[in-house]
Write a structure and sequence with these properties.
427 residues; alpha+beta; Immunoglobulin-like; 5-stranded antiparallel β-sheet; 5-stranded mixed β-sheet; 41% strand
């Protein structure tokens, strides 16, 4: 039974794997034509007034879109709908955008390497918000929706003297001959390979009196809380709004999870913005620590007896077992990258970012296990504040005809699978 279930999980991974071959990419739906996308809200401010602005980012790669033949190439039509709801108010903002993606070559229509980034600025007030983003592929008439929460801090730059935006990270950027940033494409997943020399962090400051000098300080901490990078500089410019870019040296990143904190000080006033990011190996584990972790994370599709045996074996034998296991599962041996392996560990990486709780990594939680096995749900129904019941989530996989109920009995985000749904996992 265990072997049959393992085979079924691997087969489903083959259907839903991300052809990009990087497990930091977007999980694909079980059916073609679904415009799966990444989204993020960047809290900033209007360049002229300094009033808060929420910049809604949406990223879709070409392999997630349906292209039709045009006169001189191929065209994909996308409709993006943004709905903002403010906590504690009946305030609802709605905006619909129509975007078009054009490519000349057919090969580009299926390329996961071509990322399309759309953004839209929405004026907001201080408070907590829920953003619902709907993306419809007008050629396939299929739609994907996602929800994200964000907070706009009270920032009276007239009284406090300045305001600080959120943070954006990128590994896609370009400088001109003077060192000025002329291209910056944010990475909305905050997941990066170990390639390259550095990452770029972007944020904005808005100063009521342009003559003031701001002290900018930033800290990068690893998953143990150890500071691995720290620096500071003074910012004084003639403009009220200043765009900042910080280089983070990848030489100092030898672990997976990191947190970034930017601290801005003016006199006795201090504001901070923070975010998290992670690294992943692209083709194979690069250290003993990585290999041991990668082997333990095979528990959902591998034989536990073999995994336990090789975790105690010499390093060379452990490495040989790891490559032997994934070579047997490689859907396309002619390419240097194992797409199935990449998708599997992409899911692991996603769960660590989204489902980790105090004392336990996300891949070990019930939601993490279900996500790793079955991928992104077609629909997630969240009930965080239900009167007379614990917080709960319902995950639906329409194409698989599976539904899972998770309940948080502790109130600390520890969602566990309801016993009545245990059998669904193995159907």
């Amino acid at each position: 039974m265990k072997k049959l279930f393992t085979i079924s999980v691997l087969c489903f991974l083959l259907i839903t794997l991300n052809l990009q071959g990087q497990f930091a990419g977007s999980p694909q739906m079980a059916e073609p034509g679904y415009p799966y996308f990444e989204t993020k809200v960047f809290s900033s401010f209007d360049e002229n007034t300094g009033k808060p602005v929420a910049r809604i980012y949406v990223q879709i790669d070409n392999s997630s879109l349906t292209f039709i033949k045009a006169d001189s190439g191929y065209v994909a039509d996308v409709q993006i709908e943004i709905i903002l709801k403010k906590k504690g108010k009946d305030f609802v903002f709605n905006r619909s955008l129509n975007k078009q993606v054009f490519v000349r070559e057919y090969a580009s229509t299926t390329s996961p390497e071509i990322i399309n980034t759309f953004s839209n600025d929405v004026p907001v007030e201080a408070g907590e918000y829920e953003a619902s983003i709907f993306v419809r592929d007008k050629n396939s008439n299929k739609q994907v929706n996602r929800k994200t929460r964000f907070k706009v801090n009270r920032s009276d730059h007239i009284q406090e003297g300045f305001a600080l935006s959120g943070l954006l990270l990128s590994n896609e950027f370009k400088f001109d001959s003077t060192g000025k940033v002329v291209k910056f494409s944010p990475n909305l997943s905050n997941s990066f390979t170990s390639d390259g020399k550095f990452l770029l962090v972007h944020f904005n400051t808005y100063t009521y009196d342009p003559g003031d000098t701001l002290l900018i300080e930033y800290f990068v901490r690893d998953d143990r809380g150890i500071i691995v990078q720290h620096n500071q500089y003074l910012s004084h410019a003639a403009e009220r709004l200043v765009k900042h870019y910080i280089r983070l040296n990848r030489y100092y990143f030898n672990r997976h999870q990191y947190s970034l904190e930017v601290k801005v000080t003016l006199g006795n006033v201090q504001q901070t913005s923070s975010d998290q990011f992670q690294f992943y190996w692209r083709y194979a584990p690069t250290s003993v620590e990585d290999l041991n972790l990668a082997l333990r994370q095979l528990r959902y599709i591998g034989d536990m007896d073999s995994i336990k045996f090789y975790l105690k074996a010499p390093y060379t034998e452990r490495k040989e077992y790891f490559f032997r296991f994934w070579k047997s599962q490689d859907p396309n041996p002619d390419t240097p990258e194992n797409e199935l392996m990449s998708e599997y560990y992409r899911r692991v990486n996603f769960t660590n970012k989204n489902f980790s709780i105090t004392g336990e990594d996300g891949w070990l939680t019930d939601r993490g296990r279900i996500y790793i096995k079955f991928g992104q749900p077609d629909d997630i129904e969240r009930h965080p504040f239900e009167s007379g019941s614990y917080p709960f989530e319902i995950w639906r996989y329409y194409t698989l005809r599976k539904t899972f109920l998770f309940i948080d009995r502790t109130g600390f985000g520890d969602y566990v699978l309801h016993p009545s749904y245990y059998f669904v996992e193995y159907e």
